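Notes on consecutive records. When two proteins share a document, each keeps its own sequence and its own token line. Never mix them. Below: protein one.
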Amino acid sequence: MTFLTFPLLLIFFLVVFIYFMLINPQEITLYLTSDKSVTTSAAILVVGSILVGFSGGFLLQIYHSFSHQVKHWRGNRQEKKSREVISIYREGVARLLSGDIKRARTLLQRALDRDPSRIETFLALSSVAEQEGDPQEAIALLQKAKEIEPSSMEVLFKLASTYEGMDREGEAAKIYEEILSLESANRKALRGLRDLKMSQGHWQEALDLQKRVVKAIQGGKRVDEEKRKQLYLRYEVAQETLAGGETKKAVSELEQIVREDPSFAPARVSQGDALRELKRTEEAAKSWKEGYEALGKGVFLSRLEDLYMSEEDPSSLLSFYRNQVVQKTDDLILRLFFGKLCLRLEMVDEAMEQLQIIEGSGVELPLLHQLLAEGYRRYKDCDEAIREYQRALGLEQRLRLPYDCEECGERVSEWQSRCRSCGSWGTYSLSGSDELRSARPSELRPIHHGEREEWDQT
């Protein structure tokens, strides 16, 4: 049918052309230029125009058809290549995850050679380089990926974390800032930059970033956690203010923090420190007493002892301890500090009374044995003193109370507001304080001759 169509159309066209020439015998002159012209019949002019239009359309159709076939061929070829590259890439990632780093590198490099525009391959190869211990190569690969797609969040975050792993905090901070220039409320970037500022001790900058984090997560699940961290950072800024000599300003901020979170021990401790620096010793003592009554942390008692002894007023502290012991008979931490102070003041009988109550509760605390040894030594009971010193073996000779971080167990000789190891605030407690809190004193009674030796043998 198609084969016969063209001759029939040609015959039909000739018939129409002859008919058109017979009824239009006129001639028309066309001027090509001002002095050149062509004279032909109207029929030829019309039919020629039709033929030219038809031929042009036919050629245009052929061109479009050919272009479509070429594009289709190229698309199929590109799609096939893309499938092959993805297949190689996926196998390379699988090898990477399984720990076959050498094979992973070979496959991923092949995928990159086949298609150098895929940023996923650069990311995977950067992970290979990191596992091979070559972070510089990882950075170079990530920089190339960044050139291909400058606004890729995945590339930028990977670049920032790699810089952090290399301790190149300045470059990491610049990457986080670049992310924030693209997305000002990006919470991950805000937290990353905040943590960098914290590690560098730039507390005011960290606080400013934390405020942006809190604003960005309004209504989110972590809002309470982030607000609490903001309070911790406010505390660090107040500490800087205190260290910079602006004591009154620091006191005001610390008082505000205590009002907002009475359970935050570092703010209460520093509040007392600042008041003491301003020579407002009674207010400092009151602050620490209230802190101990509210939180039961030994650091407050340690601060009180330093304050009253420096003021040469141990009687006020003794009065406080005696009143508290009557009210809180089960508070063994209080008794420990009370006994320690009594030893310091050579009030050996009262010291031993408090320490033996703790010992009778079953607490096995090296510090307790050290204090007991001091008491027996001052009683001139050398045998008992030696036994207690043996139990306390390994402690420093001064009567200093160590503190343990409740989060990670880090031990320090002086109380600190923030753990250097795990970064937690307000987690330092007197070493062994959990055991002291959970124990209950037994009834104090005289120890008969030979009874202690029986205990030692058991």
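Protein two starts on the next line and is unrelated to protein one.
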Amino acid sequence: MTNRLELNWSLDGTVDEQRYYCSETPIDSENLPVPKSVLAGAVRTYVDNVDIHMGRKKYIVLSSIKNLVEKVSSQALTYCLASQPKVWSEFKENLNDDFGTIWTAINGAEISNNVLKFVRSSAQRVETPHSVNFHFSDSNDVTIRFKAKILSFATDRRVLFTTRKDYGNGNNWCIYATPNGIHFIIWRGDATGVIIDYVWNTAYVFNEETEFSLERKDMVWRLYINGNLLGTSVTQGMNYTPSAQKLTIGSEFNADNTNDTSRDLDGEISMFQILPLAIGGGGSTTTRI
């Protein structure tokens, strides 16, 4: 199946021609790029099926030309997904999330050179309020994808992301790195035990940005490294009901253990997304961020 964007619009009056602009970066109306397509003046619908990648941002502008004068529409933004992401945090300039997740920087974690930086010795992290948006309900497909650079390692784990309650028991998940690979664990807070505790062995390189995409398709989890399937898949044999958690990036911090920084991340995160579908569809490759 070919990915495509379907557009329709209205226009008052008649024009000589129209221009369609589409970019993965914001479009400057004062300095327009080369149009992706030039359309006849009577056109009001258009299907773009060229270079449309699932799960990528697309900025769209339409313009109309009459008597050599070009008038430009406001800019639209789409994510090339059938349904909206749960979380889309780019961490390029600030902690803002595209879909309302509120991040708080703890102990001096900050954005620098378009990445979110963490210093382990300072127990730096960012975290959210408690929410159900960070879980993958029942048997729904999901993608958790991010870019990470691990700058140093000791003998313990380096936590990339985890959900956590500050009170009571809850169903949680965690992604962390050890020298031998990437670990993924889901556990239940109702004493029924661990649902998944799995490691994908990988030779990722320290001090090098790596793109990870952990995806569940039909209850089967797969890990992609820089767009390529890594190792074998793992089947999730048990559902659980999500509860309101907070999401913490860069630390395994919780209210019961506030001083242990041995598992905190020394490194960088430059993107984090939770998407309500398996981007790679269970195949051998997946769409890059």
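For the record: The first strand starts at residue 5 and ends at 8.
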